[in-house]
Amino acid sequence: MIKALTLKEYVKKNDKELAGLIVKMAGIAERISQELPYRRGKADTKNVFGEKQLVADKWADKFIIKELDKSGLVKEMVSEEQEDVVKLNDKALFSITLDPLDGSSNIESNNLVGTIFGIYKKDLPAKGRHQVGALYILYGPVMTLVYATRNGVNEFLHTRKGFVLKEKNIKLPKQGKLYGVGGLRKDWLPGFRKYIKGLETEGYKLRYGGAFVGDFNQILHYGGIFAYPALSTKPNGKLRLLAESNPMSFIIKQAGGASTNGAGSILDIEPESINQRVPTYVGNKGLIKNLEKIL
Question: Residue 276 and which of 1, 129, 138, 263 are 20 to 30 A apart at CA?
Answer without folding.
Answer: 138
